[in-house]
Every structure is written in structure tokens, then in C-alpha cells.
Amino acid sequence: MELEPSRRRASLRASDADREQIVAALRQHHGDGRLTVSEFTERMSLAYEAKTLGDLEGLTTDLPPLPPPPPERPDPVRINRGRFYQHLLTYTCVNGFMIVLWVVTSVFAGRLLFFWPVWTLLGWGLALGSHAIRAFGPQVEASFSERHRDAWDHRQDPWGGHRPGRGPEDPHGGPSRPRAYR
Hints:
This protein is an all-alpha fold. Among the domains are: 10-57; 76-136. 57% of the residues lie in helices and 0% in strands. It is built from eight helices and no strands. It has helices spanning 5-11, 16-31, 37-49, 53-57, 76-109, 118-136, 144-147, 149-153. Helix 2 (16-31) packs antiparallel against helix 3 and helix 5 packs antiparallel against helix 6. It is elongated, with a radius of gyration of 33 Å.
């Protein structure tokens, strides 16, 4: 006799990863205040003793589902290095094409012409070197404005919600001044 799918899943043996996933969910619920310390420790010990997936599912049936984890923030160092590699590939392709073009024109001229691709190789090469230093050199901490962006967001507008020069009190632009100075 074949079991229905939900009962079949409940009878499957639980892995260590399944147990750790349930314990992590219980830890989150405990941190959110849904479980007391004694309930958390009791359910955690039952999770580690569970043999089947059905035993594990019974530990969280009275708890709401957890929200999905926030998306992982990309690593800025990895992104910067990826951009450098794109820059390097573009540099190599474009300058390789220019060198081939120089070789072809030299062959048709019957003599070696001035190596004019040197200008793009050197000029663009300096920019590429600068990019390489930024990508692979010491990583600089975030700028002041990036570090303190949240600290500055709470400030009130010093013009009371009006942009300078746009308010009715000063049609000529700039912050309004007392009448004596107009």
C-alpha cells in the first residue's frame, strides 16, 4: 500500500542539515520572543534527537513561518575586481586590433611604419594601471558620506521644506535675507 506524499515525506529519515535548519529556525523564534528559554532548549534537544522529517515538522507547527532571509549583499571587492577584468579584456581586444591594423598597414607600405598604437597603449595603460591598483591594492574604507549616510538622513530641512530660491519670500533665488539688506 502506497502512502500519500505528505505522510511519505514525514516518514523519511532526517539529515543533520535538516536538524540544523530547524534549530536555526527555533533560535530565530526564540530571539523574536515566541519561545521561552525552557521551550527553546526542550525543542532544540528534541530536534537533535529526531529521526524523521515528521518529528522535525512537529517542533514548528505552532510557530509562524519565518520571513525569507535578506538577499546577500554583493562583495564590493569582488565587484571591483570583476570590473577590472572587463576593463583589461576591453583594453586587450582594442589594442590588439590596433596592433594588427598597424602590422597590416606596414606590410602594405612595404616598410615598418611608426608604431602609432603606442599612444593608446600608454594612455589607456595608465588608466588600466590605476584601476588595477584600486582593485588589487589596499582596500580603502567607505567614504565619509557613505559611512554616515543614515546619520544624515534624519536631519530636517533647514528651509522648512522649501528649496532655496523657490519659496515665495525670495523670488530671485538664494536664502531669504532680512529686508534691510535687500
